[in-house]
Every structure is written in C-alpha cells, then in structure tokens.
Amino acid sequence: MKMLTKLEELILLSVWRLGENAYGTTVFKHIRLITGKRISLGGVYFPLERLTNKGYLSSYIGEANEKRKGLSKRHYRLTAKGIKALDEVKRVNDIMWEGYPDFAFTTGKNI
Amino acid sequence: MRFKGNRPSRLGLWLLTTAYEDSEHFPLIGDFEEIYSEIVQERGMFSASLWYWGQILRSMPSFVSNSLYWSVAMIKNYLKIISRNIRKHKGYSFINITGLAIGMACCLLISIWVLDELSYDKFHEKARRLYRVEEDQYYSGRVFHVSVTPHPLGPALVEEIPEIVDATRYVWSGGLLFRYGEKAFFEYNVRAVDPSFLQMFTFPLIKGDKDKALDSPHSLVINEDIAEKYFGKQDPLGKVITVNNAHEFTVTGVIKNVPHHSILQFDLLMPYTFLEKIGRTDLEFGSNSIGTYVELSPNAAMDQMNAKILGFIKAKVPDSVTELMLMPFTRIHLHSYWGYEKDPGAIQYVYMFSIIALFVLLIACINFMMLSTARSAKRAKEVGMRKVVGALKSHLIRQFYGESVVFAFISLVVAAGIVTAVLPVFSQFAEKDLSWNVAGIGSILVGLVGITFFTGLIAGSYPALFLSAFQPVRVIRGAIKAGAASSWFRKILVVVQFSLSILLIIGTVVVYQQLTYMKSKRLGWDREHLVYIPLKSDVKKVYDTLKVELVKDPHVLNATASSELPSYIGSNSSNFDWEGKDPDFRTLIGNNPVDFDFIETLKIEMREGRSFSREYSSDLDSAFIINEEVAKLMGRESVVGENCMFFGRKGTIVGVMKNWHYQPIRRKIEPLVLYINPDGINVMLIRIPAGNIPETLASIENVWKRVVPNYPFEHYFLDENFDEMYNREEAIGTLLKYFAALAILVACLGLFGLASFTSEQRTKEIGIRKILGATVSNITVLLCREFFLLVLVSNLIAWPIAYFLMKNWLQSYAYRTSLSAVIFIAALAVALAVAFLSVSFQAIRAATANPVNSLRYE
Asked: What are the chain B neighbours of A71 within 8 Å (beta carbons)?
C-alpha cells in the first residue's frame, strides 16, 4: 500500500474526528485550527476527492441550509480501507516516535 | 443559478466552476459560500470578499495540479489502450507499422540518393561562378554539341573578355608510367591544368601552397592515395618522381582525395606548362581536344556572357562553324548531353526516382489509412462504452487522432532505423558513398515528419470524426454497423494503390528491358575474349616486333592496334571529302587510325569490298574503310573504289563495314572512317581463345617481357571496360528493381490486412452461407472476387498512363526496346497473382472455418 502524504493523513484523521459532521468546510476549519497553517479550501477539497476515488473515504450528499445558499454538503466518512491506512500510519509513527523524549521544556541547543 | 443576499463576485464563481469542470462542483461552491457568509457576519463584507479572493487565488495551484492530474491519467489511459491494441491485434499493428515504415524508409533512401545527385560539384566555394565552355558546331544544318575546346581558348578568353576573370585548361592524359625508386605504376587519372585550377576549384591542399604548387613546369600535385602508394609514411613534398622514364617531376602539393560528387575526377595534376615545354600543345583555334573552365566576375550574367562569346572562335577563324556557350559548372552532372544531340541527361533519373519515392510513400500512406479505417470500425463498441462512462466527443476525437499519430510516428522511428541499417548496402548498389550527412536532408526530414503527422491525422479522421458521433445506446445495442460507410473510401484507396503499383511494375520492367537491351544488343563486333594493352611511347616503337612475336604464339588468335578503344571512339572531324561531294555540305565524321587485321580481330562484318591487307602496298597510306552511315551520306549504290580525301590524305575506299557500335548504345551510330596509320595507334587489341585464359595471359606476358623488359605488363579485358560504361545504368536498374518490389510488397501488406478485415467482418455471413450449402471454393471466390475486380480496374487505369510515360521515356534512346503488350499483360498477371496470394490466404481460412464457431454466440 502506498504511504499517505502528511496532508492526506491529516485529512483522514479530521474526517474520523469530525464523524458525522465531516464535510469540506469543517475539515478545512479543523485542519486550520490544529495546524495553525493558512491552507486553502481548494487545497483540502481536491485531496478529499482524490482520497474518495482511491477508496479511503466514502461520500454522500447531505443537507443544505441558508448559509450555503441552498447548495448541499458533501459528507465524508472513513472506509475500512481508510481505517487500515490510518492504522498503518499510526503503527509506523508509533515505532518511529518510540522513546523520543518530550523536549517541550528544553531548547534545541542542549540536545 | 441565482444566489441571494451576499454574493461573491460572478468572476470568482466562474473561475471556480471552470477550474472544476470535471465533477460536480456544488458542494465546493457550497463550502465557499458557507465560510463566506460566516465571515460576512463576523467581520463584514469587505474582509469576506478579501478572504474569498484570497482563497480562490491560493486554491489555483491545486486546481491546476488537479486538472493536470486528470489529463495525465487520461493520457496514461490512451497510451495503455494503444499498447493494448498493438498487443491484441499483433498482425494488424505489424502490417500497419511495417508497411508505413518500409514506405518511409524507401522514400528516405531515395531522397538521400536524389540529394546526393543534386549535390554534385556544389562544394566548390566559387561553384556559382564557374562554367564549362562548350561548343555547338554546325554542319549542313545539323548541330553537333561538344564539350571539348581548342587549346588557346582559355587564355584568350581571359585576355579579351573582362568579365571572365580566370580560366583553366583541363587536359586528359592517357596512361603515364610513374616511377619512384622501386615503385612503378601506370597512372591514368592524370590531368594537365593551369595554375589557376587550384584557385578556381575547391580541392583543398593538405600539404603545399596552392598559390605556387603548379608554377614550375615540373611540379606535380598528387592526392592522398597516390602519396600513400608511392611514399607510404614519408613526407611526399619535394620527392622526385620520374614519368615515362624521361621526365622528372617534384611533388609540390598533396590534395585531399576528390570526393565522389565531383565530376572532375583525377589523382594527379601536372602543370599545363609542361605540355608546352615538350611541345604537346596545339595553337590552332580550329581543333578541339581539351576542356576549358572559366570563372566569371561576381556580377556577370550568363545570358549576356553567352551572347558575348558566341562568335569568339569565328572571329579568330573566319570559316569556322563553331559557336561557344557556357554551361554552369554545377549543372554538368545532371544536365549535360549524352550525344551530339540535346538529350535529357542524367536528370531524368533524378525525376524518375523522385516520382518513385513519392509513389512508394503514397502507397504506404494509403495503406496505413486503409488499415486504420478498417480496424477502427471494430472499435465502435469501445466508443460506445467510453461515451457511457462520460467521455465527451472532444475526448474521443483527441484519443483517435492521438492514437493514429502515435502509430505513424512509431513507423517513422522504425523507418529511420531501417535506413540506418540498410544504408551501407544501398550505397553499394548505388555505387556511391552515401550517408545521412547529405546536403538538404534536414528539409526532407522535416517534410517527412509533416507527412507522418498528416498521414496520422487522415488515418485517424474516420474514427475521430465519424465514430465519435455515434449514439452510445445504438452502438452498444448493435444498431449501427460500423464500417459500411467507409468501404467505398477503402475501395478507391485500393484502386489508387494498385494503379501506382502497376505503374511501377511496368515502368521497372521497361527500364530494365531497355538496360538489358543496351547491354546485350548485337554490337556488330565481338567484345568477348578481347584483351587490350595500352601502348606507351617507348612501346609503340617496338609494336611491330611485339605483334609479330605475339601472333606466333599459339595462344593468340589475332592481334591489331587502334588509336582508341573500339567501345568508345570519340575523335571526329569534318575534313573528310569524297569525289562529287557538295562543297557546302559539311558534317562531323568519326575517325580512327588502326593497324592491319583490325576488322578481323574485332570480327566486324563487311557489307562490301575488303578489309585492309598487306598485299596491297597502297593500303598503308591511301586506303579507307567506311561504315554504312558514310556510304549513306555519299548517297551512291556502290562506293567501293571511290576516291576520297581525309586531312590531305588522298585515297580510295576499299571496303564498307556493316554499322557497328563504336560508342555507348544510347548514342546513334554515326559515320565512321578507318585508315591505317602506325603513328596514330595507342592501344593493342589481342583476340584470345575462350578456354584457359590464365595460361594465355601468362604466355602473352612472356612475350611482352622479352620484347619490352623495362615496362610492366598491363592488360585489360574489353568486356570489362564495356561493362564499366554501363555501371550507372546498371546501378539504376538494380535500385529500380528493389524499390518497385518494395512498393508492391507494401501494397500487398495492405491488401492482406484488408482481406483479413473483410473476411472477419463477414464471419457470420460465411457461416450462414456454409450452412445453406456453399462450398469452400464458392466462398473463396466470393471473398476474392471483389479484390480481383479492384485490381482489374486499377490495371485499366494504369495501362494508358504507363504506356504514354514509358513511350516518352524510350524516345530519348537512339536504339530502344519495343513496348510490347506482353509487359502490360504480365503486369496484370503479377498484380492479380499478388492480390490472389494476399487475399486467398484469408479467404480460405474464412471459408474452411467451422460455421458453428461463427454462429454459436447468437
């Protein structure tokens, strides 16, 4: 299986975290909130679609509201394949990060 | 769609929708709208718009990369389909690609040949200003065109005509014996030229100074090969070579070997001043024997110059009949005349081959289009499927065009490979040193790439434009029978293709027949088993002894001598008079001094009178033998015994020979006079028996060594010399044969592919016919009939065209083969046989197939 990119990993995790509320806007806001980076909406949207095409996510059309000028939402949900991919990422990350000390209180220079 | 309330700009919306055309874009726009309206509520309209535009701009890279991602995916898919197609239809793809590749390779090879022909003599820096001086001589209303000129002409032209800035004489020298130390060889490619020769022509010197190399009468310029031959690794400059055991020459320059695309071919150059020193020049303006080349000033126009020099000779010699003209130097190779008359020259071969190249390419392109069209008809279902899953018409057009262009370019690459591989062999056939590196190849390649692209487009047009318009439902349901509409198109293509092939067959056969005819035509004398030995000045002195000794040898049947080789007697004169000749009537008559036994040794037949004989003492200085042409000029019943005069030599005509070819057969037999002159002979001719030639030669050599010990024995066979004269024709005949064969092969490939396509299309029909009782032969005939009809039609079209073209071509030969109906019928037979071979295989396969297999699935 191909390794996920960092962005894809973040998107999949956001979709998982957001659960039923995962659609373009929320995923975009969530990633912006967590990373603090000024990403673009398009930059989230295309990976979402690509991940759907690759089978990591499934999507369904949700409700519309006044704010959206009557345009419906596209909700995303993790598929089994998506979960497996995240498991794999976690497994690799856990091994890679294993024993890495928390340097939150030290400066880089003293390592 | 209309948006209410706070609306992001229309432009931004448009950008979003276009960038995102390929899928459903409402959720995305919805998301934009959602955040936009949130920001409007929190921070107002202005920041919201700012945010909106910022987002769009920052999203652009993702839009672009996204659309690229999809087009790459589609191209990958197209390529995959192409490679699948190639693998699935190996036969078709092979035929299609090789057919076009062979056609292109032929076209490229011919282009290289043609470009090489066109490149002759263009390498001289001053090429555009160089001219050869030629003459028209008028005798009794007939014009004789010659390219030999008087000795003093060159210097006189430079002196009297300001536009002629330089001139050189070019004197052909016979075999000379060159000796350096132990090494002694006869050299035949020796020319005597003026010092200006090296300035006018670009024959670069590797060693020596081109301004001074030919200044001293005893200087000598040699080429690399000669330098290697005589001096090996030593420095040739300053070495002394002895010529004919009498004259010492110092090597003053070494030139590069003369390239093959130069009409001036020589190995050694000696100064013209040497000829003056030994008195071998001719100060008369009336006799013509050497070449004269001139260089014009840069702004001189050829037409004006021609007018200026026209009467140059007449001004010097009042009763002259000679007019001068200039022949542009670079045109000599292709446009100079063959005989006295203005013949088409070698340019006709260039035209001929260019036409063949075009034909072959056309046949191959047609083939490609035909097969592509036929095969694409099978892809209607694929088109349907693609449309069902969302392909637009434009996608399909792109795909089919792309596909056939890719195919065409694969062929081009294969063709380039074939040419590279075949070029050495081709050079051998063409008897030239050919390479990719020929002037003008760039434009040919560009042209070919253009043609490839164009062929690909045309071939792809049918599926791209016609199939892509199908309604998927109807295609998949089977309501549209693809291919029917294109069958007329294909029929026309087959007819065009076969007409071209038949033209080529007929053309090749006629050209080949003419060449064979020329080679095998009864010459009127026997050139087999005839040895000739060049006689140098010293050897001439002992010629009589040599002849007596040789004839004593049982290995020698007969021996004689002649001024020129009987295969090419070039010298002629207007100074032959006979009793009762109209004093105003003048014409050029060929003449050749010979020894006794000439008629007997050559086995020339006499029409009346006798040959020269020692029994008549007067034969030595007052007997003439003429050919039938002279007798015709004299216009009398019997001319034997008539008095006549040649260059002041009075005598009688003792015999009339039947006409025999003393020049290449493409020339008409002209009048010829033979007379005995022991001083005029240059070559000894020996008739030997047919068997055991090595022994005979050894025996002759023994005699030679006894009589002339200080000259090497050097002998040649006349039939070899004869064959050499036809080298060019021979090479052209061979090339023609192969190209015609390839053209036909390509056409066959096409027919084969087409036949297999049609029989495949009619599988079910054949199955039903068989069930209803059709026999194998019935079905074979059914399948072949259509193609046979097409081939017949092609013949009917090609015959008249071929007839007129070839009749025209043959007209340029004085002696020509007849254009018999057999050739045309043979062409028909060949075309039918070829068509039968390529079609019947498929037809029989289809006819013998078990009908169950073809019908089972419905």
From this structure: 26-27, 29-30, 33
